[in-house]
Amino acid sequence: MRLFIMGYRFLEDVSIADVAFIAKAADLQSLFKYCSDAVTNTMVKNIKDIRQNVKKKFHIKAKDIDMLLFMFIEKIIYYKDVYGLVFKDMRSRIKKKGNLYLGEFEASGEKLDGMKHDLLVDVKAATFHMLEVKKSGKMWSAMVVLDI
Amino acid sequence: MDIKNTFKEPEFDKISDLVWEIPKTFKKKMNVPVRVYATESLLKRMDLQVFEQITNVATLPGIEKYAFALPDSHAGYGFCIGGVAAFDINAGGVISPGGIGFDQNCGMRLVATNLDIKDVRPKIKEITDLLFKEVPAGVGSMSKLKISRDEFRELAETGAEWAVKKGYGWEEDLGHTELEGVAGWADSSKISEKAVSRGIKQMGTLGSGNHYLEVQYIKEEDIKDRYIAKKWGLFPGQVVIMFHTGSRGAGHQIASDYLQLFLEVMERKYGIKVVDRELACAPFQSKEGQDYYMAMGCGVNISFVNRQIILNKIRGVFSTVLEKDPDKLGMTQIFDIAHNRASLEKHRVDGEEKELLVHRKGSTGSYPPGKKEIPAVFRKDGSPVIVGGSMETGSYLLVGGSKADETFDSTVHGSGRTMSRAKARGMTEGRELFKKMLKNGIYVRSASWSGLAEESGSSYKDIDEVVDIVDSAGISKKVCRFTPVSNVKG
User: Fold this and answer.
1) Chain A residue closest to B5 (CA)?
2) What are the residue ranges spanned by the domains of chain A?
3) pLDDT digits 0-9 by tens, B190-210
4) A122 and B209: CB-CB below 8 Å?
5) Would you state the pLDDT for residue B4?
6) Mean pLDDT across the stretch A56-80?
7) For residues A103 and A68, is the Cβ–Cβ distance under 8 A?
């Protein structure tokens, strides 16, 4: 299996009916961006085909970093189901305040268009199965299983 | 990272040629053994994650007798798909969203026609193209129906009855639906505004992944129980329609909301620790457990409504193309059944009758004759069981068997995947698959070539092998097999 240093990679042999991926990054902001890309890339084959003509800002408060990622992915799915949006870019500020993790996010993308985007499969939910965000040395990593 | 190899392979005790047991000693905290239904050959080919997941299920509080993995089992999240577990609600038994599946009442509906395949085949392209146009499918598919938020909450409580009253179906459809189309315990005050927002534009949509709508027919040699087939209106050459979908975004949001709530209270209020957070649960009799049960009822109803609206569209399409009213085409509903649901049922456990909450995740209720869970029109025969195979192979209609009590009246729901979506895409090209299927007499319309490749027949176990196991075990018996002629894929 090909090694990767930063970015995301889909895992072929985990939760085969669904989709699993690992993301790695030097900081939490990039990690969340890669996770956003992985969720989008599960639904749209080429993220580069997505234009950035709609912006959405949202805040999430969570008691741990795993929950922050779970709620973050849930929000991406919410925008897809309610507004038909998929995101190409995701900027974030994540900080720890007391016992809470606070995330401020700015997403940009456009409405799904079957004629323009090569669509793959719908992501219906984030799951807690194997969900883990951790820091090893200087690198952050996340393991995620999406419900399909 | 080779996660697959981190799972320990269990040693199985052979109970019979079709039943294998993983003893309680396999894993700390297992409250009951696990029973796997498979031939020795299939057992060897099963994904190790299935055993990892089902033995985790066996650790949950209040679980009775065994945790089951059926022949179509494959790795899911938390519970394996094809998993069954029953909890004694009067002895601290729990309810777990992960044991029901995010897509509550994901299920199958089977519709009859009085048409013969030789009359339909010349029009199959026209029918399928119009079905593809009328039933939104694929990533982010939305409905053209305008439903208000209040109406959505109403349908979440009244299920298929709501749809029939609005004109999306026939009164008799209800008697041919599990629970007669309504989970009466649903309370829409238990679902979030987010769930309403996600569901409101999705009623009457198929979704994607393994959701599909298929036109099929019955070969003479594929009728296995002539008496029941005739009684249920099935005959050789007959064209039927089968489709697979569920509660869409609303159901997923309900499960997500309660999963988060259960993680919050499970240990703090109830002292329950789980080995996988996706198994988060609460005692059924607790406030949180009851709230989720009522919310899940909404998910069940939302799914019934979704399938009811789709049925109405299917009738409209056949009527338009064949220029006859749907009733003149004999488009009666044969049955509608869930394969993701928790059901309150009475079962005898070691001679004692208990009230159990049976979790079936990717598993179908298979009730033997006489059970009260079976709608009146089928009660003498046993419950109809609709088993969807891959789009290239075929599907089955079964009936509840005399030995179904061994698995808390539960059976398979499909054939079960053998490989990941990514691997399937790497092995099959969507356009090539389309051509191959066309050559084999199956016309497909799909929202995505890649999505089509993910659902190739080679991505699934052999449906005949899977069904043979439950038939031989007496859990459900074959009524007939269906051969696909066209498929609409999300």
Assistant:
1) A13
2) 7-147
3) 999 999 999 999 999 999 989
4) yes
5) 52
6) 97
7) yes
